Amino acid sequence: MSKTDKTETPLPKSTESFEALLSLFKASSDQMRVKVLHLLNKDSYGVLELCNLFDCKQPTMSHHLKTLSKAGLVSSRREGSSIYYQRVRRPADDEFEQLQQSIFAAIDKLPVPPPQAARIELIKQDRAEDSRRFFTENFEKISQQQAHVASYDLYSQSTLELIEKYTHSFAAGAKVLEIGPGDGDFLTKLSPLFKEVYALDNAKPMLEAAQSTVAEHKLSNIHFIEGDTQSKQLEEVEVDVAVTNMVLHHIPSPAKTFVDVAKHLPVNGQFFISELCNHNQDWVKESVGDLWMGFDPDDISQWAKEAGFSVGDSIYLTQRNGFRIQIRQFIKTA
């Protein structure tokens, strides 16, 4: 070998992979972007909400989000006129999946500063109040409006059949909690299957409508609680099964609902949900008060796993209007 010969460092397998790796490190090396990734661990936020949480101007926040998106760390989805951001979970066979999960794991160990925690709570309260106000003002026509989105007869019957399929696994004298019982019709289906039934709703007119339905059927094993899954009135309630039908897309922090429900279930307790799959029909936000435009089934599964559930049985229904419904079973493992 001559003196002019040099040992060349082999290039990465592809320039694209090399650039992607640099982009990943660049995006996760900025203090503000790390804070944003930390915040997006359990929830989705819009640009203006993020600006409020971090006292940041919109152009600056948009720049950070663009950098995170380019690196594959966050994704966006349109909810009506707003754009919401959430963290991205790479496929298991992605070459950077383990690296990204390690970055997220390190970030998630950081504490949430008390001032920011207070602002997060205010945002959730605002979302909850918007939802509660809508149902309070529109409870008389809500069932008719929701029928344009999802057929109650279709998803309620399928949800009931899924619950009945697993009644053999319920403890003797099992108790059930329905979150957001609507007009109470599904409570009448749960009543014969369980010793005690609890109905939880944060809109008083909706709860009163459910109480009226139960009274008409002369059912005596149903108890009503006005509030949400974090209400003090629910603290002492322990059930074997929880159910929610077409409610998650009205809840300010749907991922947190799994955590809240898990507190009231024993190991092997079951959580059944019916919910819209993600869609792009933004008219539902104004027409039926939806906070979220459905959910990716993988996101729901991930929220459940993080809350200590395993993924059980599932049913998927497709309607002529384009909306898809997912009916899911989750089993508490820890």
UniProtKB/TrEMBL annotation:
Record NCBIfam families: HTH_metalloreg (NF033788)
PANTHER family named in the record: TRANS-ACONITATE 2-METHYLTRANSFERASE-RELATED (PTHR43861)
SMART domains: HTH_ARSR
Protein name: HTH arsR-type domain-containing protein
Species name: Oceanicoccus sagamiensis
Domain HTH arsR-type as annotated: residue spans: 13-107
SUPFAM superfamilies assigned: S-adenosyl-L-methionine-dependent methyltransferases, Winged helix' DNA-binding domain
GO molecular function: DNA-binding transcription factor activity
Matching InterPro entries: ArsR-like_HTH, HTH_ArsR_DNA-bd_dom, Methyltranfer_dom, SAM-dependent_MTases_sf, WH-like_DNA-bd_sf, WH_DNA-bd_sf
